[in-house]
């Protein structure tokens, strides 16, 4: 039988030790480092050390609103599947996604746009949502930007890490102009696992 | 208002066109190409063109068992969240994960090993499970390997794409020796999104 580490705490400790070592001279402010390392832990992709970009108020704001037990909109079920449920309930945080809602699916088919757009428009009506975590659809992030510009929604924090080849990089650059605190991954890379890792990093810090 | 493509079909078509173009000389057998491109589509990471490795019978076997409406064990809820539900029900495929089951959580705490190990041992008792999709935990893949060696389980296909810094690369190399058809991602990279993308690529082909 093969020998390997089976203790989850030891696996995590060793993983972060390796990540810290391989990051070398690349150091971060403590909280930022925890987020960056958790994303690398999730993706095994050191490029994120350069791709992640933080609004100066993003970390402070994220800690504050999560500690207050806010509501999060996630643009995929995968993000919801990936966040630590014990921590969510400990802080009274709820996380919702509307992409598979019947009314959303119907309207998306009728209008010929992505379900992500319609779902985001539905989310914007819920003023209890203070954090938007977009890990998949650039169209969701672009819709969020439009609704912010139209003053129809004003979140406290945007985790903008959609992945893709069509509008992904642009959507992340332009969300920076809204004035809302953000964490983004520049360029094409990102994903639901990245969004979940960022949320989890916050949950482990607060 | 910004102009961008809102039609999901057009976004997907254009994404795959860009991926195919940037892959350049790197071409694949048709079905394999669909899987590789869907993984790149999900991660925006072209390294997967080199990291994915296919057992010669993996694609044929995967298509066959999925068409027959098999049961899949996924090592995370994220994988389940990421697969196309309409396609699953169309083919009568079920997908399960036991990591959050009460008995699994309890036994993992008692024994001090990862929940992924205990959950995999539980899955191995269900002989209806014909495909194992491991996107997160190297310990799940190592447990699967051990149970295959002990002739306690004999799946038709293994999607072995756990991510990480501790045992991930080794777990994927050693699953290749079991004789079971596999699709793996060599090295540290992988993830739940990668596993879901591989399953979805199959679902769109069959």
From TrEMBL, chains A, B:
Superkingdom per UniProt: Bacteria
One Pfam family in the UniProt entry: CbiC
Domain Cobalamin biosynthesis precorrin-8X methylmutase CobH/CbiC: 10-205
One of the GO BP terms on file: cobalamin biosynthetic process
SUPFAM superfamilies xrefs: Precorrin-8X methylmutase CbiC/CobH (SSF63965)
Entry's transmembrane regions: none
Pathway(s) of this molecule: Cofactor biosynthesis; adenosylcobalamin biosynthesis
InterPro entries membership: Cbl_synth_CobH/CbiC, CobH/CbiC_sf
Keywords attached to this entry: Cobalamin biosynthesis, Isomerase
Key word Isomerase present: yes
A GO molecular-function descriptor: precorrin-8X methylmutase activity
EC number from the UniProt entry: 5.4.99.61
Protein family: Belongs to the CobH/CbiC family.
Name the UniProt record assigns to this protein: Precorrin-8X methylmutase
Organism of provenance: Acidilutibacter cellobiosedens
Gene behind this protein: cbiC
């Amino acid at each position: 039988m093969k020998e390997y580490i089976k203790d989850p705490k030891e696996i995590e400790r060793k993983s972060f030790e390796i990540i810290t070592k391989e990051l070398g001279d690349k150091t971060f402010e403590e909280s930022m480092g925890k987020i960056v390392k958790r994303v690398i832990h999730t993706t095994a992709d050191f490029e994120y050390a350069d791709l992640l970009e933080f609004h100066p108020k993003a970390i402070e704001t994220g800690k504050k609103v999560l500690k207050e037990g806010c509501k999060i909109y996630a643009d995929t079920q995968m993000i919801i599947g990936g966040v630590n449920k014990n921590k969510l309930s400990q802080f009274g945080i709820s996380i919702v996604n509307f992409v598979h809602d019947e009314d959303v699916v119907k309207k998306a088919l009728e209008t010929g746009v992505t379900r992500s757009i319609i779902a985001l428009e539905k989310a914007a009506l819920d003023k209890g949502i203070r954090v938007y975590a977009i890990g998949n659809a650039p169209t969701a992030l672009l819709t969020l930007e439009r609704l912010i510009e139209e003053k129809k929604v004003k979140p406290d924090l945007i985790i903008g890490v959609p992945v893709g080849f069509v509008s992904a990089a642009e959507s992340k650059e332009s969300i920076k102009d809204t004035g809302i605190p953000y964490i983004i991954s520049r360029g094409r890379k990102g994903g639901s696992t990245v969004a979940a890792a960022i949320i989890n990093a916050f949950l482990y810090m607060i």
